Amino acid sequence: MGPITEPPPRETALSITAIILTFDEEIHLERCLKSLSSLVERIVVVDSFSTDGTVGVARALGAEVAQRAFTHQADQLQWALDTLDIRTNWVLRLDADEYLEPALIAEIRARLPSLPSTVAGVRLRRKLIFRDKWIRFGGYYPTVLLRLWRNGQAHVPQLRMDEHIVLNGGEAIVFSKDFCDHNLRDITWWTEKHNRYATRKMADFIAMERGLGKANGTGADADASRAWKRFLQYAVFRRMPLYLRAVLLFGYRYVLRLGFLDGRPGFVWHALQGFWYTMLIDAKVEEARLFIAARGLDAFRAHVADRHGIVL
């Protein structure tokens, strides 16, 4: 009988708390949690009272669960940062339909413990998967996002859309490996979600147009590339004629940024995300303008609050 081989030791978790916001994410959550299980010291699932098996999956895989009614992503995430008594050195934020690739896990292990104190955040490269196809073109890869930061050194601007993290100070660096955004649901779910997003975008557009306080495009941003995109979106793109914007955006992504190289799944993605979604926003903006012209701004504000739960 040969020598008994000891199993390899389990890798020590780093001083990281991972926060995952959920609502009915049973289909994705196990994949997400397993990608984090050996890397982070603590995982907290902040759930909006899911009706499926999300909470059971989270607890079965060792995550803590906190439940709270949902308003919007930024509000939920800031509540988590303020409430969860986080004591680890770092905080990581993922969506349930996202997961870390092994190469990124290895990079975080190798680099994070030795980062100088001047580094307050780490930007990670997101790889979008649609219908099992990596969308490499059209300007979607890499999307670089601040998702890992030193505890207590960041906050979440309270925006209805485009939730993101902003550092309170210090510098951010970019790691070279990827995490994946790979939603497994069907087109019906995708279009219903983006219909809701288009309503929020419309509300932000009208808020800016009518001077109803701060809109979604305001606020400092530690990520220069994101800040530039937000400037283009809110200072340039929104000033273009309605409907023309959808045509120009699709042409830019699909032709100039080589989206056609993503094949059939890429055509569906760029046509829906670049053209249909933008057209839907514009149609809702035009509808809102007609409503205001006929009934007045106060009636419109009451309408969106009653119909969509959006306070302008």
TrEMBL record:
Gene3D superfamilies: Spore Coat Polysaccharide Biosynthesis Protein SpsA, Chain A. SUPFAM superfamilies: Nucleotide-diphospho-sugar transferases (SSF53448). Keywords: Transferase. It comes from the Bacteria. Residues 18-134 form the Glycosyltransferase 2-like domain. GO terms for molecular function: transferase activity. Belongs to the glycosyltransferase 2 family. WaaE/KdtX subfamily. This is Glycosyl transferase family 2. It comes from Rhodoblastus sphagnicola.
